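#help-structures

NK: newbie question. if I give both the sequence and a SMILES, will the prediction place the ligand too? trying with pyridoxal-5'-phosphate
OV: yes, paste both and it writes out the complex. here, I ran yours:
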Amino acid sequence: MEATHIKDNLNRITEQIEAVCKRTGQNPAAIQIVAASKFRSIECLRMLAEDGRIAAFGENRVQEWQSKYDPALTWDMIGRLQTNKVKYLVGKVRLIQSVDRMSLAEEINRIAAMRGVRQNVLIEINSGEEEAKGGIVAEAAGEFWQQLQTLPALQTAGLMAVAPFGIERAELKKLFEKVRRAYEEIAARDARCKILSMGMSHDLELALECGSNMVRPGRLLFDPAQVL
Ligand SMILES: *Cc1c(COP(=O)(O)O)cnc(C)c1O
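OV: that's the protein plus ligand as structure tokens.
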């Protein structure tokens, strides 16, 4: 049954996290697992939520998320976000991980202030500097962080990065390390910077080795193991 293989996958991911943490000296309990849940059914997500090891469900598209939305579950937005969709999310998602421009941040701030809430967000880094993807370059993170501090209804909690596909491990490691440096530079002067969201199915371990404390597995968690 579907439920069984997902539990097995989650056990394997937990073991992977523990193994890497043993090597790096990180505390495995401090690593959050965000299930990248695009295209997965709400029934499946409810079952997984009961397990208790998933910190949040990360959705990519507002419309799909709305069709699944259950306030009993914890949700993150991890996909590219249009400004006109912000109103649906604010106050309902734990974390908007994909803030990559001031106009988007301002709209989140405006709606949050209107509703009397503070919205947690992450700055998205386009680590591979790919044009088709969202995110800012790592070098601009510090300055963007400062700009976001002018928005009182926004709580910026860290950085998120999506790595490019199909590049060599050594290259990927360089990209992750670059994001980590940007993260550490900000964290050194602002204690509110405490989340580094990196690592998907194919690069989970490497991301953890490079200091990630929030991983976002999708296929590794939901698909039968033999597919990978
Ligand atoms: C889909 C997605 C993931 C998960 O990808 P997998 O390769 O299925 O693990 C993680 N982060 C983001 C932003 C995604 O869009």
